[in-house]
Structures
1.
Amino acid sequence: MSRDRSGGLDGVLVVAKPSGPTSHDVVGLVRRLSGTRRVGHGGTLDPFAAGVLPVFLGRATRLVEYHLGHGKRYTATVCFGETSTTDDIDGQRTPIAGPPVSRAAVEDGLRAMTGPLRQVPPAYSAVQVAGRRAYQMARAGEEVDLAPRDIVVEALDLLEWDDRDAARPVAVVDVRCSAGTYVRAIARDLGARLGTGAYLGALVRTESGRFRLDDAISFDTLREHAADGPTGILRVLRPVDAGLEDLPHARVTADEVRRLGEGLPTGPKIPLEIRTSDLVLAVGPGGDVVAVCRAVSGVLHPSKVLAARPATDGRPNPRPDLRPSG
């Protein structure tokens, strides 16, 4: 975690997004409070959803792609007895006169919906169809035919069951799933499996990869730190490679940082267990990640350089994006 050369900050903020703002709103808030132009997030949360949202600043934005495939965990509130046009609480709902839903039936349905699955995304989603977003077509009243996608649902555990309104029971479910899973579609499909309607009434993301909601900071806490300027933000900013600790890391010297910045491979020096790897983070003498590399027989080949190249005639050179060499 550091200040970047453009005056902004480098690192990861783990934010607890409340229900209401969009993920883009969170990015805008962090951009304003941190004084950092380059800011991105690590996985969209719908406006009505809350929970952990990793936000990447400065050089950390160039590592976002390595987070997007990480698994997610949610606490989902599933409401039975109605369908929703959007499969969640924000859509137009229609009562369904289906059979009564019991706790046992819900538990059986959840068990049947775990493992590798083919899931049809919601009609109101950002999936592109012939260059258009599905939700744009749905809002225009057009028929949306989306192809099923491969997902993995690791576990669906019933946490709470409320059937005080027998016609409209509510289940709270712990969901552990792969990236790209629509929890709204899980609620929709569970209702269909039980012969009734169902929609997602609330959603909280509790985990995103290695980031946990318990460790996330609220908007109020973020604003309190921002009141002290960039130094205050630095107190809650995690390193550039936060969340990627499981990836191989290789220490490199100042001279090797220069070579990587010029697109040149380093000499063999990597520990034996990671002599060959498609993805290695090179760490410079100061402890910062300076490049994303591919290791071949102990040699690092740069694919993405985060460190600034050495200055030429007093002028800094840009950081290049490189295809893996060798």
2.
Amino acid sequence: MKRIFDLLISVVLVIILLPLVFILAIWIKLDSRGKIIYRQKRVGLHGKDFEIFKFRTMYPNADKKGLLTVGGRDPRVTRIGYYLRKFKLDELPQLFNVINGDMSLVGPRPEVRKYVDMYNPEQKKVLNVKPGITDYASIYYRKENELLATAENPEQAYITEIMPHKLELNQQYINNAGVITDIKILWLTFSRVLFG
């Protein structure tokens, strides 16, 4: 049922949003050099790696200076990248991850291998479900980069404070998973992005 729901909604959204995707692609290309789509390895279902798709929001090779985005105006982020991130438009290409079957519309956000390797056995249970575009943690930590900007050591704060809480929220989702829960999370995500 969940797969049918994901596939149906994703295909409909891709068709509806195609003009917007085309405009954003041109804007990204005109704004800075580099590819339109950014691909990154993330850890998916059962701990298997897959490539996640995003609209590129940083200058080329900026991710080599760190995996976390810190502050509202990280200098590695392009001009259009700031707005893509603010309104979560950089996540739109992940609809193709959903269509491919690597991701679900709703589920624990997939992490990079570096942080997944730090999970304890209990936390690794989040890998038993398909990762998603949005979840409770995405909504709660919508301004994560601004939160990290206040930390003396952003990466340490992420590892010791934010990541464990995200995993707790992920477990909360897993314990109450279902189409109704997914619809609720999608609506909360949409309303938070639009209305703050």
3.
Amino acid sequence: MMTDLKDLSREAKKLAVVFEATGAEVVELNFLQISNVLLDLYGEDIRGRAFITNDPIYGEMMLRPDFTIPIVEQHMANSVSPARYTYCGKVFRRQEEFPDRPREFLQVGYEIFDGANPEKADAEVFSLVNEALNGFPVRIATGDIGILMAAVRSLSTTETRKKALLRHIWRPDRFRTLLNQFSGLSSKAQSIQDFEDYNKLLDKFQAIGSRKVQEIRERLQQIKFESETEPIDPEEVKILDELLSLKHRCPVALNHLEKLSKKMPGIDLTVDNFAKRLTFLEKNKIKVDLLDFEGSYGRTSMEYYDGFVFGFYSEIHTELAPVATGGRYDALTERMGRGKKIPAVGAVLRPDLTLLLRGNNND
């Protein structure tokens, strides 16, 4: 069913009022964005979901797939001072996997750049989204990728392995494959004799394809070193598995995480931050006893989230995309800040979906 554009515009304004009331700066951004920045941050996966064209001066351009990265780019280029932004505008996504979903749709969003009290800012963003969606039949999911990242950094293994696992946190299947490999649950790739044979073979060649012999030799040396490294401690793998499988109400999840932190002290700080966030949420009248927490939540979302994550989903139309999503993306500001950084958190809402749910409520 086609949505009336006037109705959609009115719906977007209803949602935006909640964020504009905070005094946040209202921003507008260009539809076309230089794609190399977005590809660098999202990865090549975004190419299959984006509308791309070529400009004779600027080169490859992309219809904006979201607002967050352009806002971060703009903010970090001009200031690292605390700021709040809100916006309302169209984003564009190809929908080859979900042909019934719209190719262009409105987003209403809110972003906070402020490092004074990150947990308080997390609670503010979540609470404002919850206020905007008050009365809608939605299911809420929350998580914290920062806890999982801290657990990986705490592993008693090589930095190379930890970097590989961190790089694939947002790709659960690849993450599991690597974890199994590093923990000795899958067979080792090659024997030592194999590496010696490969090196002798390389002596007969100057180059193979576009790669230099020295590059291949260095890669073989890395693989050899990996094959000789002791597996990750099974107890540490067990803690990771417990964290990834954790699903419960937030207070119960916190209690479980505090117990896990006694076995893996490296997650202490992130678990403490989780506790602080719940306190601020309670002060904002959020019923945390009814709020779900999932240890794996957010891992298939866009890769710039690295802390608190949340999503609001229709209870009626379970096949729909999330009505609202959000999270913390501190590392993104550092990557785009050329040496500057400031903690940041934000959220986006879909007016087309809230309009659909509002219509259901009126039936």
4.
Amino acid sequence: MHFYPYGILVSSAVVLGMILFAVNARKSGIRKETVSWLACLALPSGFLLSRLLYCLCRLTWFEEQGFAWFFHFQDGGYMMYGACFGVLLALWLTSKITGENMGAISDALAAPAMLTYAIGRAGDLLAGQGYGWPIEDWFSVDAFDPEEYTGMSVFHLEDASFFERLPFAVEDAYYGNYRWAVSLFIGVIALAIFVFILCLKVKRTGSKAILMLAWLAGVTVLMESMRQDDLMRWGVVRVSQILSAVLLAILLVVCQVRAKPVTDKKPLILEWIALLASMGLVMIAEFMLEKKIVFLDFVPMDGCYVLMILACLALVMSVRMAWKRQERQ
């Protein structure tokens, strides 16, 4: 039997998340049997549906491998959003079985889920994934003329060896160069969101979970933009970014439905305009990163990523407008 560091880390993160969930549930007055039911349902459903979504997103390849490959779990091949759907399904079933409010259970799980995500994202580096651009390309200068700057960044560094180490970079096992440790950066951001969600006070059940999912989607869009590894694509489109956009649209609908009906439809329209405009900003940032907007190809890569960060924040804030409105009512 082989034990893989990444698998051990993710398993440990899940266990830690479930322990924190049990603590949160007790503080919220949720019964112990509810915690047990959710653990028993969420672990297998999240695992299997994350695998299923991966296979569906790579359906042609999966058909070539044969159906038996689905059960080759040691070969990798999972998607976060499949796990999210599995957990949501387990939440719904747990609520039906125990009679507990699904929103209350979701709120107790929100912070632990983000903590699990943070640890799992940072651990991607153990699986040889989650890295970005090579450091030497990022700060490179012309080999024949040190004064001629040819790198991706606005910063000129002839010697970038300081960044060729953790926590900034990780060595690419295949090419032997150092690349930005994107997963570690995203893990730190997710850890900060975990603290924010843990301390967040809400008036309505389910509000913590909604905001956590919005932040999760925004962080995922940013991470997928920064990654330069074996990320899932449909042609030139990054799958997780599309799924994140769909999730944000669903969350906006949920927040608007939860808010009391209003005679003035202007807030609803403005919220959708904000979300769609933010999605458009993400697309512009992606085209700039790929140098497909000719008149903006002079913008350095770190400038493009600043725009992407702002675009991802705008995505979350566009949903938060509706979230605040439903929280007040």
